[in-house]
Amino acid sequence: MRSFRRILVTGGAGFIGSHVVRHLVRKYPSIQIINLDKLTYAGNLENLTDIESATNYHFEKACITNEEQIARIFSKYAPDAIIHLAAESHVDRSIHSPLDFVRTNTVGTVNLLNQARLLWNGEFDDKIFYQVSTDEVYGSLGPSGYFTEWTPYDPRSPYSASKAGADHLVNAYHHTFGLPVIISNCSNNYGPYQFPEKLIPLIINNIKLGRQLPVYGDGTNVRDWLYVQDHVEAIDLVAHGGNLGHTYNVGGHNEHQNIELVHLLCDIMDEQLGEKVGTSRQLIEFVQDRPGHDQRYAIDAEKIRVELGWEPQTHVKEGLSLTVAWYMQQQEWLEHVTSGAYKAYYDAMYKAAAND
Ligand code: NAD
Ligand code: DAU
User: pLDDT tens digits, residue range 306-350?
Assistant: First the structure.
């Protein structure tokens, strides 16, 4: 087991990153946790108000593509672990502006790798560069089979291609320079603090607002859903005990067609709103499909179970109920994140879909 004194998390103001930061700050009071985030539309310090005054928490606003900023912050804190989550993460946005994804996800990762090399200068004991990646790098599955750690990469969206490029570079820095790296590839997360451009919070928010529930194509695409806290536990275990140079797949054993998931959410929302079950389903509308929409993702998470004892703990009904209840109570948070730039994006994205 590795032990760390200072862990730097990139993208710690985003959805998964904020859960990672909160978990580390609370669980390891003697470890300094540095949250490095550019605060894009997806990053929000309101996600961390409950731990922001902890003495082991530090925030630095910076862009991972900026050499000077990263060099300054690495030299200020000298982190021995870098858990890298900062990214442009929404597939639909990557279809509209691929270059932003290559810049942040691929070039930004190389900048961090370079700065980690300079900082550690060949002293790699109890050091780790941990790349938090996605199952989307493996491409799209048919009705059977699973992604394993040996499945060849076959990314099909600008988002997944930019993450795949970053993963290859992380491995290249291990093989070429001996940098102590680990990668995990996880399936779809859900839970509190997820930006409402992603399917689950978008559906919840739209039901609250009485808006249409846009389901792409015929709704038969399958995703493997994992409650975010289960992913956080996996990240903690992999960071401390994963083998260097290895990849770990993380998934929920929890496949649903999109339309099944939307039905489930509608019914949970109806229950929590005190409506007759079936009311929210009437808002469902099948809209134009996502270009290049991957049909199915499903993870074989056997390696992380056998090596590190990790298994998902949260059943989907429980996880979705907790998530819905959280969004029902967070009107102010929702209003803050759905104002301004997000509103313009939402209007443009779904107006185009409605017109086709
Ligand atoms: P998110 O979009 O909610 O958060 C991304 C964070 O990165 C934001 O806080 C944003 O401000 C920050 N960021 C973006 N560009 C930056 C830059 N140039 N410099 C510094 N910070 C920047 O993303 P998420 O859903 O929490 O995903 C986090 C990571 O996990 C990503 O790397 C993503 O690829 C990976 N991942 C996500 C999922 C999922 O289902 N959400 C599943 C598997 C892997
Ligand atoms: O698999 C891991 C990936 O999961 C992460 O790497 C990504 O960062 C994360 O965004 C997520 O990607 P998806 O594209 O699978 O998630 P999203 O929530 O955008 O969409 C889930 C499914 O729902 C997908 O099949 C597209 C569909 N969808 C999505 C939206 C936003 C709809 O049918 N309607 C919608 O309005």
Answer: 999 999 999 999 999 999 999 999 998 998 888 877 677 677 777
Catalytic residue chosen out of the listed positions 37, 80, 88, 136: 136
Residue 279 lies in a domain: no
> What Cα–Cα distance (Å) separates residue 21 from each residue in 15, 203, 348?
10, 26, 33
Please give the number of the atom of ligand 2 that sits closest to the Cα of 258: 23
Mutate which of 10, 15, 84 for ligand 1? The one with the most ligand atoms within 8 Å of its CB, which is: 15
3 state DSSP class of 63: coil
Domain membership flag for residue 155: yes
pLDDT at 296 exceeding the cut of 50: yes
Helix (H) or strand (E) holding 334: helix 331-337
- The answer to whether residue 233 sits within a structural domain is yes
Q: Tell me the torsion sign for CA atoms 258, 263, 268, 269.
A: positive
The verdict on whether 159 is a catalytic residue reads: yes
pLDDT tens profile 72-99: 999 999 999 999 999 999 999 999 999 9
Whether 136 is catalytic is: yes
Q: Which atom of ligand 2 is nearest to the CA of 224?
A: 1
Indicate which CATH number applies to the domain containing 46.
Answer: 3.40.50.720
Q: What is the pLDDT of residue 353?
A: 61
**Containing domain of residue 240, as a range?**
6-190+224-250
Residue 272 inside a domain? The answer is no
Q: Whose CA is nearest to atom 30 of ligand 1?
A: 85
The number of domains in the chain is 1
Q: CA 189, 193, 195, 201: dihedral to nearest 10 degrees?
A: 70
